[in-house]
Amino acid sequence: MKQPQWFSLLGLAARARKLVTGEELVIKSIRKKDVSLVIVANDASDATKKKLQDKCNFYNVTLIFAADRDQLGSAIGKHERVVVGVIDEGFAQKLLSIL
Questions:
Q1: Which residue in 5, 18, 52, 65 is a FRET match for 30, CA 20 to 30 A apart?
Q2: Could you tell me which CATH class the domain 5-98 is placed in?
């Protein structure tokens, strides 16, 4: 089965070390304004979704919901991931154009 194009791009960003994963690390990066884009799994808990939406709105960071935790994790070559933050502006813009 062929993976969507954005999966490949997310994997490339992970290999280039331009991602932050995990809820607490992503929130810390949002506060420092290091993150350009936040991707949250559709199957994340409502509390996690609300917390990340509020942080992203306050700090003016783009937030999107995509895939589920298994797909998000496999796209970056890790186990399940609920939230991923993209540090690099170029990767973030390309991901947004694809999604």
A1: 5
A2: alpha beta
